[in-house]
Amino acid sequence: MPLRSQLLSGLVIPAHPLALDHERKLDERRQRAFDRYYLAAGAGGIAVGVHTTQFAIRDPKWIIRTVLKIAMEEMRGKHVVKIAGVCGKLAQATSEAEIAAGFGYDAHC
């Protein structure tokens, strides 16, 4: 189904939570579990990097690329809407949008 038709059909696209361990580092196993949970629950898509509490993933010590990659690996092959949040000044937002496009996200906003 084309993206526009999917969106117009009405669907739930939850904001992707960030799974951190007790040292506030990315917990990849639990991150993947969040994705699988939303997909198994019938979400029509996942919006990655859109939570206002997740600005830390854009700090130099975080790699937004890793979070986008993990989510895309879990969504690959599924007919869901794949949204990536981008932010920052033009250079940063452009870079993040290019990363998301490279992974195959449907929209970068």
Any descriptors?
mainly alpha, three-stranded parallel β-sheet, 9% strand, globular
Short synopsis of the structure:
With 109 residues, the chain is mainly alpha-helical. Helix content is 42%, strand content 9%. The protein has one domain.
Protein model, in words:
The model has no long low-confidence stretch (mean pLDDT 86). Strand 1, helix 3 and strand 2 form a beta-alpha-beta unit. Helix content is 42%, strand content 9%. The chain has one domain. Helix 2 runs parallel beside helix 3 and helix 3 packs parallel to helix 4. Strands 1-2-3 form a three-stranded parallel sheet. It is mainly α.
Order of strands across the main sheet:
1-2-3
Mean pLDDT comes to 86
Please give the radius of gyration in angstroms: 13 Å
Characterize the main sheet.
3 strands, parallel
H/I helix tally: 4
Task: Measure the end-to-end span.
Answer: 21 Å
Number of domains: 1
Order of helices and strands: HHEHEHE
Give the helix proportion (percent range). 40-55%
Low-confidence stretches: none
